[in-house]
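U., I forgot to send this yesterday:
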Amino acid sequence: MHNMYEHSLIVTVLKRGKASKVLHALKNEGVSGGTILYGEGTADSSILKLLDLDHTRKEVLLSVIKRDIEDEVIQKMIKKFRFDSPNTGIIFTVPLIEIITNKQRYDRLEVKEKDNMSHEVIFVVVENHRGDEVVEIANAYGAKGATIMHGRGSGLHEKGSIFNITIEPEKEVVMVLVPKEKHAEIIDGLSKDLKIDEPGNGIIFSAGVSQAYGLVE
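Result:
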């Protein structure tokens, strides 16, 4: 069992039309590919700088990166695409426990949380048209905004990527980035109000975020 993860998931949320440029830049840095999802940003008072006061069209790019180049590549992306400036987008990374592809299976790894993991990302998969309800519930329990990704026609898979995600048609995936100290309350609130313990009401999963840029403190 390794004591350090070997890969991270890079998540970027950008205005529509920008993700392919970031994907191209990541490929130039040795990242093998990625998946672009189309979504909507929602927030009234947002922890995410890029989210406007109403529904805004977004692209969410998911890529896998080797841990040994993660820090260097993230810093290059921040500089190139100005993730540290207001209203440009956010970028964060999530340690990956296990990766399975048709070519290779990476061993399940033990992830040691970094001391600076100040945020968690929560994913909620629900039936189509329930995304807004999820956002309202999350915000009621202390979240400050979210990105809704629609299942049908949402994936653009780049050949050669070691990461792919498939969401059933007529599903919505809500991604919420929350401060670590609010994570438990928001997860519990979502589980209770969405009645996740009853069949067909959705799935919730979450992970610690190792790096996050583009956030309002």
